[in-house]
Automatic annotation (TrEMBL):
The keyword Oxidoreductase applies. It comes from Bailinhaonella thermotolerans. Belongs to the short-chain dehydrogenases/reductases (SDR) family. The lineage of its organism: Bacteria, Bacillati, Actinomycetota, Actinomycetes, Streptosporangiales. Residues 7-183 form the Ketoreductase domain. This is SDR family oxidoreductase. GO terms for molecular function: oxidoreductase activity, acting on the CH-OH group of donors, NAD or NADP as acceptor; quinone binding.
Length: 248
């Protein structure tokens, strides 16, 4: 219950799904947590659940000034920064034919530019070393149908993670990606709805889900905790897959 005792963490997209579950787990493990989300109500709800060790910061992680403000909030509010979970993300379920340039740019901005920006401001604040975890996806490691911009963005996240890990290893900063398969969050429920698929059938799809179910946000959070904590002290530049065997 104290793997992150004394640590300060930022979780982006902490108002929902995987980010929310991870923020709550980090807090249970002793961390103080900045919950950043474009959804101010979601961020506030997660921070309220954490209590005095939680701080909600409404922010658009594609915006440089917002990212700088999120990092400043952690250092000003809690005195240091040790862990950054770059998790906020969006998906558009279209082929290249139905996607306009503005939608392409938005997916890239929220999923990729955000990792660049948050790292740019967070790394100098990690004065005693730290751990950065970026949320990729199984679709960053293989292709997926009807999600052209998302697949491109998540492949970028996986390889940015490797480049960041090399550049900052000597600063005592480890950088890894966690790559979920289908996980039961509001994002995935909305995808099933857009694809007009019954949730139970969707979640049990045999081809993608050998275990016959989607993962839970808490199951992803446990993997993020491993990468965030000293338990993974010799792990950097890795792409940890948490997908119930989907990629296999
Ligand atoms: P979710 O929609 O439940 O949560 C995403 C959160 O990110 C939301 O609270 C949303 O408000 C926030 N957000 C969106 N745009 C933002 C922005 N510009 N600035 C700040 N916050 C923003 O989705 P989730 O399923 O928990 O997804 C979390 C991450 O996991 C995403 O990067 C997603 O691509 C990835 N992922 C999800 C699945 C899955 O099956 N759910 C699978 C693989 C990867």
């Amino acid at each position: 219950m104290n793997t992150l005792a004394g640590k300060v963490a930022i979780v982006t997209g902490g108002g929902s799904g995987i980010g929310r579950a991870t923020a709550l787990l980090f807090a249970r493990e002793g961390a103080k947590v900045v919950v950043a989300d474009i959804d101010a109500d979601g961020a506030a709800a997660t921070a309220a659940e954490i209590g005095a060790d939680g701080l909600a910061v409404p922010a658009d992680v594609s915006d440089p000034a917002d990212c700088e403000r999120v990092v400043k909030s952690a250092v000003d509010g809690f005195g240091r920064l040790d862990v950054l979970f770059n998790n906020a993300g969006i998906i558009r379920r279209t082929t290249v034919l139905d996607l306009d340039a503005g939608e392409w740019d938005r997916v890239m901005a929220v999923n990729v530019r955000s990792v660049f920006l948050m790292c740019k401001y967070a790394i100098p604040a990690m004065t005693e070393g730290g751990s950065i975890v970026n949320t990729g996806s199984g679709w960053g490691l293989k292709g997926g149908g009807n999600a052209i911009s998302y697949c491109a963005s998540k492949a970028a996240v996986v390889n940015m993670t490797r480049a960041l890990a090399i550049d900052h290893a000597r600063d005592g900063i480890r950088v890894n990606s966690v790559n979920p398969g289908d996980t039961d969050t509001p994002m995935l429920r909305e995808e099933a709805r857009q694809l007009r698929e019954d949730w139970a059938a969707f979640a049990a799809d045999a081809a993608d889900r050998p275990m016959g179910r989607a993962g839970s946000p808490e199951e992803i959070a446990q993997a993020v905790l491993f990468l965030a904590s000293d338990a993974s002290s010799y792990v950097t530049g890795s792409a940890l897959v948490v997908d119930g065997g989907g990629l296999a």
